[in-house]
Amino acid sequence: MMSLSYQAAMQEPLLEVMQERMAIKSWQDTGDRNSLELLVRSHARQAWAKAISCANNPVHVEDLVVEGIIGLIRAANNFDLKFKVRFSSYAVWWVSAGISAALARIKVVIDIPARTYIEACGDRLTDDRTIQVQTAIKGIVPLDGPMGEAGVFTPKTLQCPEPNPEELVVEQSSRVALARTLYTAMAVLTPAERKIIKRLKLKPNPDCIQGLATEMKITRTRLRQIERHALMRLRKELLNCGFELEMLG
């Protein structure tokens, strides 16, 4: 399994579209591991960004990155070159799915013993000791150290709650690509269908159904029929563009 440090992953150059597609084709057609490594290394920042957002224990982060890399490899195996999307957009779900599954396993191993220990001790644990146990299990490193005779830790940690610039770039790039794909897919809809989908599904604050029906001079029932038909067509088109059923919910 290839591995890449956080610093190295962030320094890897992003591939151009043709480089990316040639690497995918070479890997799928001939099993060229150099092509796979080139593809994975250029997208490893996705695995790191997702892993860092899910855990604050360095050991857990590294484990999650490995799962994210496996997700990238699975994405490379399944990517269809007919898809008119960038590999990074297609790989988002695979990386997230792998890391989420691993995170669930980690929590089963770590969280349950911690909770069991605290519950088993009952009243014998002071509030301060309980905090220390929970802190140790979560892998949080306090910057201030013990304070007071009881040794209570402050909540300051090494983890920054805000995404770093690299994470923002990956997230923004993925959002732009997904928005572009959605816009392209909506071209198969009629003007009325597009209007309904935009107003009911894509706005931060969806319009009132009755108000939209009145505006379009149709009944609520008819509007719902058009909406269902439009969603079916849009779903089919997005699948053709490379989305997975799980990604569409």
Task: Explain this structure.
By secondary structure, this protein is an all-alpha fold. It has 2 domains: 1-124 and 158-166, Four Helix Bundle (Hemerythrin (Met), subunit A) (Up-down Bundle); 189-248, Orthogonal Bundle (Arc Repressor Mutant, subunit A), CATH 1.10.10. It has 11 helices and no strands. It has helices spanning 6-11, 17-30, 33-54, 58-78, 87-121, 127-138, 165-185, 191-202, 209-216, 220-240, 245-248. The chain is elongated, with a radius of gyration of 24 Å.
Short summary:
With 249 residues, this protein is mainly α.
CATH class of the largest domain: Mainly Alpha
User: What is the terminal separation in angstroms?
Assistant: 31 Å
Mind summarizing the main beta sheet? none
Oligomer: single chain
* Contiguous runs where pLDDT drops below 50 for at least 5 residues: 108-120, 132-161, 244-249
Secondary-structure element sequence? HHHHHHHHHHH
Overall geometry comes to elongated
What is the total tally of β strands? 0
Structural class by SSE content: mainly alpha
Q: Under the CATH scheme, which architecture of the largest domain would be assigned?
A: Up-down Bundle
Rg from alpha-carbon coordinates: 24 Å
Q: How much helix is in the residues? A: over 70%
Write down the domain tally.
2
**Annotated CATH topology of the largest domain:** Four Helix Bundle (Hemerythrin (Met), subunit A)
Question: Strand content of the residues, in percent?
Answer: under 5%
Count of helical regions: 11
The overall average pLDDT, rounded, is: 74
